[in-house]
Amino acid sequence: MEEKRYYAKIPLSEPAEKLARIFIQKGFKMYLVGGSVRDYYLGRDCADHDFTTTARTEEMVEILRENGISYNDTYICHQFVKAEVDGEIIDLLSIGSRGGFDLDLMKRDLTINSLAYDVEEGCVIDRFGGLEDIQNKILRYVTPEINKREFKITIRAIRLSMELGFKIDKDTYRLMRENVDCFDVVRATAMLHEMPKLLEYGEKYFEEE
Question: Which domains, and CATH codes, for the chain?
Fold first, then answer.
């Protein structure tokens, strides 16, 4: 799908803005990604700020240390840290170490979560029609292969359908049915992360019905 760019000013919290500027001043790109951008277009408050940076993992860590920013490096092997900036926890992923910006967007789950905001340029990058799907209230996989990777992605699609009132695209739904065996092997971390949200929104969903 053809890439589209939309110039907009997505408001960031002061800590998120501070972190982004630190990396930009070092010559690296900082992209606000995923649900943070999606929620802006849905008119919802951005509860979390998730960034990707073109800095390599070692460069990312060095910059954080230079600026006295503490971080949790539990998942550093995946080029990912949780940085604490003025009391706010911010997710930061190095895409300089894992195939770059294009691959990162392609590996995301749903088109509405594949949007990226270039902080320096002040524009939203849409490679997979995420904004159109938000407008049409559709949940669609970025690529057909993604549903085969893990249980968490299938659960997230179901949860977001109830949370946002979006319909699951028919081809995406078919893939979910075809790959239902992904439920046979469930990671504990996926269960702990997604199931409470699924139950919370599921309860509200059935109450409305």
Answer: 4-132 (3.30.460.10), 137-208 (1.10.110)
